[in-house]
Design a protein that fits this description.
The protein is an all-alpha fold and about 90 residues long. The chain is built from three helices and no strands. The protein has one domain. The chain is rod-shaped and about 120 Å long.
């Protein structure tokens, strides 16, 4: 009877140790999952912020401002517009 009790005690201790190990691993996995979800939400926020910045940079007013400041461009007016006459260009050939 003593051997049976000792064998049952060893099985009980072994199963308890296994249960503690499995519970610990489950908590680690849950923590990793929670971190991954938090990181996903952060990436979504960053993506939406970058999309908004891209849209703000692509407005016509912004494009015109950059063209004037960086490229030294100006709007087309009749004073700076040259028209090509198709008939005159054919005669020169």
């Amino acid at each position: 009877m003593t051997r049976l009790n000792f064998l049952l005690l060893a099985a009980l201790v072994g199963s308890c140790m296994y249960m503690v190990k499995i519970t610990y691993e489950g908590r680690q996995l849950f923590t990793a999952l929670d971190r991954a979800r938090t990181e996903e939400r952060q990436h979504e926020r960053d993506f939406k912020r970058l999309q908004a910045e891209r849209e703000a940079q692509a407005t016509s007013g912004r494009v015109e401002q950059v063209a004037r400041e960086r490229l030294s461009m100006r709007t087309a007016t009749p004073a700076v517009t040259f028209y090509v006459d198709a008939a005159a260009s054919e005669v020169r050939r």
